[in-house]
Amino acid sequence: MYEVPKIPQATAKRLPLYYRFLQNFSNAGKIRVSSRELSEAMKIDSATIRRDFSQFGAFGKKGYGYDVQELLQFFRSILDRDEATNVALIGVGSLGSAFLKYNFHRNHNTKIVLAFDTGSPHAGEKRSGIFSFHPDVLEEKLIEHSIELVILTVPAKAAQPLADRLAGTDIKGILNFTPVRLDVPDRIRIHTIDLSVELQTLIYFIHQQET
């Protein structure tokens, strides 16, 4: 087992990307890869890649590059790729339904195992092969399925009340797709993805390129 030092948040966000592209190189039969090749594939500056990798120890060799399998083993270890994490989805609207149809376990180490929606019965119903329950049974089902992570795709007004309920459970993280900045205990990690903000940011950078 590798010991991973504390790393900057920006570096941590790139870890799954490194794993994905290294897996692509491995599938293509590559034995070793240079920071330049990773840079061209990932569209990330090669200096950034070298700086990130240097924080994990001496993986690269000058004139040789990086051993693909060694890096894959390292990233698999720190990302727990060999064991799926159970995820619950709350809110099966348009975005939530898309998540259910895709489901992450096909390509990642996360798997949506159940969902919650006000339109679902207390006894549950199948949606895209996943059982969806009414939120009234939220707490008991989270315990029953050993849920660690929750994806929140509900209307804004429902976000904080649900977060308050989740704070009373043993979940460790919330992927929040609402525009609300949730208030939860420090033990729960929140990543908020506001699609409208992301779109506006993209438009800003496009306009910047045009000037």
UniProtKB/TrEMBL annotation:
SMART domains with a match to the protein in the record: CoA_binding
Boundaries of every CoA-binding domain copy: 80-181
Source species, domain of life: Bacteria
SUPFAM superfamilies found in the cross-reference section: NAD(P)-binding Rossmann-fold domains (SSF51735), Winged helix' DNA-binding domain (SSF46785)
Residues engaged in binding NAD(+): G91, V92, G93, S94, L95, G96
Residues in the DNA-binding region annotation: 17-56
UniProt main location, coarse: cytoplasm
Molecular function GO labels: DNA binding; DNA-binding transcription factor activity
Record's function text: Modulates transcription in response to changes in cellular NADH/NAD(+) redox state.
Matches recorded under PANTHER family: REDOX-SENSING TRANSCRIPTIONAL REPRESSOR REX, REDOX-SENSING TRANSCRIPTIONAL REPRESSOR REX 1
Family: Belongs to the transcriptional regulatory Rex family.
Protein name: Redox-sensing transcriptional repressor Rex
Gene name in the database record: rex
